[in-house]
Hints:
With 333 residues, the protein is α/β, with parallel strands linked by helices. It has 14 helices and 8 strands. It is elongated. The chain has helices spanning 3-9, 34-43, 47-57, 82-95, 121-130, 144-158, 163-173, 180-187, 191-198, 205-213, 220-233, 238-250, 258-278, 313-327; strands at 60-65, 69-70, 101-107, 113-119, 134-140, 281-287, 290-297, 302-306. The strands form 2 sheets. It has a 5-stranded mixed beta sheet, sandwiched between helices. A 3-stranded antiparallel beta sheet has the order 6-7-8, with no helix packed on it. The longest helix has 21 residues, at 258-278.
Amino acid sequence: MNMRDRLKANTANLTPAADREVTETAEDTRPKTGIGLVNKLSQADRRIAELEAELAAKGAAGKVAVARIRPNPWQPRRRFVEARLQELAESIKEVGLMQPVLLRRVNEENGEEFFELIAGERRWRAHQILAWSEIDVIITKATDAEMAVMALTENISREDLTDYEISKAMQRVENEFPDRKRMAEALGLGRGTLYRFLSFSQLPPYMIADLEEAPELFGGNAASDTVAVLKKLGAAADVTAKELWEQLKAGSLDQSKFAPTLTAAVARRESSSANQTSQRDIHKVYAGKSQAGSITKDALNFTVKLKSSAVTPAQEERIRALISELYGDGPNA
């Protein structure tokens, strides 16, 4: 089971919040911290429905101008499928909005008030497609931790995300945990799986820049393997990695082969360099007991180096005459 399937399995069989009966209790049992919240979500079969229902239960229904709403800052999704949004818009146009979007109120320092989406961004975007000025909402209070977890878990459970998008969301949610072990436990993942997701942040800047535009280029396994290779090989792999990355973007190199191809290419280059070095023959030249220079021969060059102080004018003239005799005086002779 791959990483995305593992995450989706942890959020399967969810009941929509609109279909659940919500009753308020005298005692507020909602977890107060991001850690408690995620643990609750990871341990319940209906964690998204429970969270959305809890937030909705303490909110107030109404209508808000579509233009005053902004996306959830922790939204992991980089791109939305326009065809699906269009289908949702047509459905809303025909039967109406079946479930209000969930918002929290935000006041900026300049006094301007707007609303951030907690849940329902696709519904909000569908209203934009329809050019409707208002949307049914429930305005409630939500912490940053609740916003972050809701955005990540809702998207993973309901629609496919690329590993890079999940990774970006996890990096933002990570601040709510004391360490990655607790984070892995909260999300129902093995630490190895979590580390593979978070390895994207260690990729070179040029890779990350391209993933921002095309997050499907690299999966978590490919990213983790590549980070390991780059750490192991260091600067020796930089040039080759950039060349292979261009091949991957062009579609001529599969992402699963990126790390092994990089390893093999660097090994071949180092082997070739080692062979050239092993074939190098160096003969030292002495003037009396002092070294006057050297004669070096390798696969590419035959080099004579002599110290100026060790060559008399007569010797220099004889050397020049010998070279001229062997190779001529050049094209302008």
